[in-house]
């Protein structure tokens, strides 16, 4: 199957760092069925579905159990037995989807999720929207009570049956289907897997009728080779457009690259560096996506950020060519110039193929002079040879000079910056993947030198995703040297804390540090701005926002899931030794949570998010 895997913008990502990231964890990390699994042919519709998932090389299926797919559950356990896909038991559907999302952010490939009928899908919708906005692949399997009303049990089958269940998520999935027979289910699964993994990537959803799952097969289905039905999709650029772009870039005197949605593939990373050096282009990257360029490189002169700072704004004004590699919100970024840029804008993206008008995640319509509807990685690979002898020495550039770190006070408030710098120091030179950060994060606090150093944001701005994303990253990085690390706010952690149980149960090394300001502080800032605009008391901004009196013992909540909990860390002189102990425990294989009390405060990122009109 691996030779027929559809091409994707992430491909077989970062295998030099993480080995076979799509491989299964060791025997100690999965739940094993008792007795001998059936070795005979499929007998029921759900057996057909389970066999197809195995044929598709689906590595994992994250789930919260539900009676609507009890037939499929039985087939995965007792028909397939000890083979892929392996189950990952989760305590909430939103966590299951977030774990699949985090897995995809590392590997660039989909895994599967099973959700219980309409009610499970309703729980999962926030996670699906996050993955959709983040353009991450996954295959979600749902179920419904018997479509044939005479076969429904009283009450429960009726409330768990919907006429068009896919309509709940159709606006933020790439494709959905509700097949009516086992034969149709095979084709539906192939199409859903193929489309989810093909660029532009996004979740897909397949609904399985209970009757389809549980009815006996009247006759065996004919054999088929899934590879023949999922041809690789090469989203490469046309030669004439590559030649045109190469000509424009070769002549540019002040080129600028906006590196956005690209893969975690180290070879593609190296090609982006080579392209920037070949044309002497300065490069900007964005905290909304995984890191796309080494932030300490001389051609990356500004800290990675969520919104453009003064340096990038000036560079956009000065540039004669701007090359966007699927930059998120190109229109919004250019809008700070107050007029269309004087530069020739080259846009490389397939994102327009997913724009549907229901969600405004497509952002504004940017000014573009040359559109290359292709995969950014494939386009960069084509541009390098097209430049040929026209390459020129890199223009003089200096990397961003980080501001000196403020000393952590022995007493008094700990800032998010103190936390970030102390955590980075505690991790040292050993590889780590920063799977999540807070809204106040600033790029100068933490350099990124590898495509897996930072995995990007949650995509849709949905609070509660952080723990699940971190668990998914830990699953993908298990049995590698790279440790999954996340920095979560207290509100985010509280909403997703039960995802940690899955990490503990399947022995996934993970470190989560909580920047705990005991508040939904983003909304405090909003309330302060509204109060100032209306001439009302800003002192009341905390009402309905603070998580205090009593303060919640977040470390105890982590321990309740089986994790190792530290904190609350309230003194600066305790921060470094606590983080050192936590890092050592996580690298030894534990799931570790550190609760750090931080002073409420915002950086330039959050200030921009809450700027007054």
Describe it.
- By secondary structure, the protein is an alpha/beta fold.
- It has three domains: 228 residues, Thiamin diphosphate (ThDP)-binding fold, Pyr/PP domains (Rossmann fold), CATH 3.40.50; 152 residues, TPP-binding domain (Rossmann fold), CATH 3.40.50; 194 residues, Thiamin diphosphate (ThDP)-binding fold, Pyr/PP domains (Rossmann fold), CATH 3.40.50.970.
- The chain contains 22 helices and 16 strands.
- The longest helix is centred in the first third of the chain and has 17 residues.
- The N terminus and C terminus are likely disordered.
CATH topology of the largest domain: Rossmann fold
Assigned CATH superfamily of the largest domain:
Thiamin diphosphate (ThDP)-binding fold, Pyr/PP domains
Tally of individual domains: 3
Strand order of the largest sheet: 2-1-3-4-6-5
Helix content: 25-40%
Strand residue content: 5-15%
Kindly state the number of beta strands: 16
Poorly predicted regions are: 1-27, 603-613
Shape: globular
- What is the rounded distance between the termini? 53 Å
- Average pLDDT, to the nearest integer? 90
GO molecular function: acetolactate synthase activity; flavin adenine dinucleotide binding; magnesium ion binding; thiamine pyrophosphate binding
Keywords: Thiamine pyrophosphate
Region (Disordered): 1-29
Domain Thiamine pyrophosphate enzyme central: 242-382
Break the fold down into its secondary structure elements and pairings.
Layout: H1 15-18, H2 45-55, E1 60-63, H3 70-79, E2 86-89, H4 93-107, E3 112-114, H5 117-133, E4 138-144, H6 156-159, E5 175-177, H7 182-197, E6 203-209, H8 210-214, H9 226-229, H10 239-251, E7 255-259, H11 266-279, E8 282-284, H12 310-318, E9 321-325, H13 330-334, E10 344-348, E11 370-372, H14 376-387, H15 416-427, E12 432-436, H16 466-477, E13 483-489, H17 490-496, H18 499-505, E14 510-516, H19 521-534, H20 554-560, E15 564-569, H21 572-587, E16 591-597, H22 604-609
Helix pairs in contact: 2-3, 2-7, 4-5, 4-16, 10-14, 11-14, 15-21, 16-18
């Amino acid at each position: 199957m691996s030779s027929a895997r559809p091409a994707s913008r992430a491909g077989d990502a970062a295998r030099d760092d993480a080995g076979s990231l799509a491989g299964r964890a060791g025997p100690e990390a999965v739940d094993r069925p008792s007795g001998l699994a059936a070795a005979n042919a499929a007998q029921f519709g759900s057996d057909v579905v389970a066999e197809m998932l195995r044929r598709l090389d689906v590595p994992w299926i994250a789930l919260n159990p539900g009676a609507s797919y009890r037939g499929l559950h039985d087939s995965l356990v007792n028909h397939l037995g000890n083979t892929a896909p392996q189950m990952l038991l989760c305590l909430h559907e939103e966590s299951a989807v977030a774990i699949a999302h985090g897995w995809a952010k590392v590997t660039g490939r989909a895994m599967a999720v099973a959700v219980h009928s309409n009610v499970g899908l309703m729980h999962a919708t926030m996670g699906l929207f996050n993955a959709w906005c983040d353009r991450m692949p996954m295959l979600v399997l749902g179920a419904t009570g018997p479509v044939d009303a005479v076969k429904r049990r009283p009450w429960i089958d009726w409330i768990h049956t919907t006429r068009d269940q896919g309509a709940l998520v159709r606006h933020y999935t790439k494709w959905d289907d509700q097949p009516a027979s086992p034969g149709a289910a095979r084709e539906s699964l192939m199409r859903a897997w193929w489309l989810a993994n093909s660029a532009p990537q996004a979740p897909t959803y397949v609904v399985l009728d209970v009757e389809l799952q549980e009815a006996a097969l009247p006759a065996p289905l004919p054999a088929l080779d899934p590879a023949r039905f999922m041809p690789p999709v090469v989203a490469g650029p046309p030669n004439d457009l590559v030649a045109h772009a190469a000509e424009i870039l070769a002549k540019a005197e002040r080129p600028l690259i906006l590196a956005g949605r690209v893969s975690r593939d180290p070879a593609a990373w190296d090609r982006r560096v080579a392209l920037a050096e070949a044309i002497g282009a300065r490069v900007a990257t964005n905290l909304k996506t995984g890191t796309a360029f080494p932030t300490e490189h001389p051609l990356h002169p500004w800290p990675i950020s969520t919104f453009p700072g003064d340096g990038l704004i000036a560079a956009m004004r000065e540039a004669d060519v701007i090359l966007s590699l699927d930059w998120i919100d190109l229109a919004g970024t250019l809008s700070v110039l107050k007029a269309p840029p004087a530069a020739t804008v080259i846009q490389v993206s397939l994102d327009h193929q997913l724009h549907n008008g229901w969600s405004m995640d497509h952002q504004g319509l940017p000014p573009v002079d040359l559109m290359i509807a292709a995969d950014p990685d494939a386009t960069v690979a084509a541009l390098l040879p097209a430049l040929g002898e026209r390459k020129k020495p890199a223009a003089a550039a200096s990397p961003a000079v980080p501001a000196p770190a403020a000393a952590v006070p022995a007493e008094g408030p700990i800032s998010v910056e103190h936390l970030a710098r102390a955590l980075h120091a505690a991790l040292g030179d050993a590889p780590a993947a920063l799977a999540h950060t807070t809204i106040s994060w600033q790029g100068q606090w933490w350099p990124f030198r590898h495509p897996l150093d930072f995995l990007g944001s949650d995509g849709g701005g949905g609070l509660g995703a952080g723990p699940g994303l971190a668990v998914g990253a830990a699953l993908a990085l298990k049995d590698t040297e790279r440790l999954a690390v996340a920095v979560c706010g207290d509100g985010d952690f509280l909403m997703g804390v039960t995802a940690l149980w899955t990490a503990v149960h399947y022995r996934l090394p993970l470190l989560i540090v909580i920047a705990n300001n005991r508040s939904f502080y983003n909304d405090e800032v909003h309330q302060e701005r509204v109060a100032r605009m209306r001439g009302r008391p800003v002192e009341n901004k905390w009402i309905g926002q603070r998580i205090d009196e009593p303060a919640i013992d977040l470390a105890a909540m982590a321990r309740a899931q089986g994790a190792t909990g530290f904190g609350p860390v309230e003194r600066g002189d305790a921060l470094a030794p606590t983080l050192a102990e936590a890092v050592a425990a996580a690298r030894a294989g534990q799931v570790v949570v550190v609760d750090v009390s931080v002073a409420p405060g915002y950086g330039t990122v959050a200030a921009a998010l809450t700027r007054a009109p």
